[in-house]
Design a protein that fits this description.
Strand content of chain B: over 45%
Largest interface: A-B, 22 and 20 residues
Radius of gyration of chain A: 13 Å
Largest sheet of chain B: 6 strands, mixed
Number of strands of chain A: 11
Shape of chain B: globular
Strand content of chain A: over 45%
Structural class of chain A: mainly beta
Structural class of chain B: mainly beta
Largest sheet of chain A: 7 strands, mixed
Order of helices and strands of chain A: EEEEEEEEEEE
Number of helices of chain A: 0
Number of strands of chain B: 11
Distance between the termini of chain A: 37 Å
Shape of chain A: globular
Helix content of chain A: under 10%
Oligomer: heterodimer
Order of helices and strands of chain B: EEEEEEEEEEE
Radius of gyration of chain B: 13 Å
């Protein structure tokens, strides 16, 4: 089975802190994605990557950056966390580009910024 | 702009009944659709997909219907079970853009 793991299930950070969310997939997928999920807004794409060291902005990239140094790992970085970044963060991987096939999701990280 | 919406945010059904979850989309150029299921505390999980050149696709206990005329997508779950309780999302793809709906929460009453 495809497995996508995220480094933390729950995180509590303070405003202004730098936050790293890690995601690892074990299926050698080319494409990886970071979403945030908020009630009433569904899943919104923050960034995606279609290859090592490649990244593309999604719909809501402001306040976030990403890193993909290895194929299996995709990191989301909040340079200076703010309270409006309190959310559930979901990582996904796929062997298809941009929603054209199944995305396999991790369990999510619930981030609270105080 | 794009919108992928669901007719009802919540749905309750009796165990053993059939469930129908609906989704409306706005872009007639959308050519690929997926339904995902998200159980509490877990990430979304693929259920079934359908391409725009099809009207219907069946899986195990699930059927997806696509009506391109009215830009409507539905997910039918046969003989709904307690394990089907979850939030269901539709997602649409148009070219290099894809969007998720906000989800319908399905509760199965024993």
């Amino acid at each position: 089975d495809v497995k996508v793991t995220q480094s933390s299930r729950y995180l509590v950070k303070r405003t202004g802190e730098k936050v790293f969310l890690e995601c690892v997939q074990d299926m050698d997928h080319e494409n990886m994605f970071w979403y945030r999920q908020d009630p009433g807004l569904g899943l919104r794409l923050i960034y995606f990557s279609y290859d090592v060291k490649m990244k593309e902005k999604g719909d809501i990239p402001e306040g976030y950056s990403v890193s993909r140094e290895k194929k299996e790992r995709f990191s989301l970085i909040l340079e200076s966390a703010s309270t409006n970044q309190t959310s559930m963060y979901l990582c996904a991987s796929s062997n298809e580009f941009l929603g054209r096939g199944t995305q396999y999701f991790g369990p999510g990280t619930r981030l609270t910024v105080l | 702009g794009e919108s992928v919406g669901l007719h009802l945010p919540t749905l309750s059904v009796q165990e053993g009944d059939n469930s129908i979850i609906n989704c409306a989309y706005s872009n007639s150029a959308s050519d690929y659709f997926i339904w995902y299921k998200q159980e509490s505390g877990k990430g979304p999980q693929f259920i079934i997909d359908i391409r725009s050149n099809m009207d219907k696709r069946q899986g195990q206990r699930v059927t997806v219907l696509l009506n391109k005329t009215v830009k409507h997508l539905s997910l039918q779950i046969a003989a709904t079970q307690p394990g089907d309780s979850a939030v269901y999302f539709c997602a649409e793809t148009t070219g290099n853009q894809f969007y998720f709906g906000t989800g319908t929460s399905l509760t199965v009453i024993p």
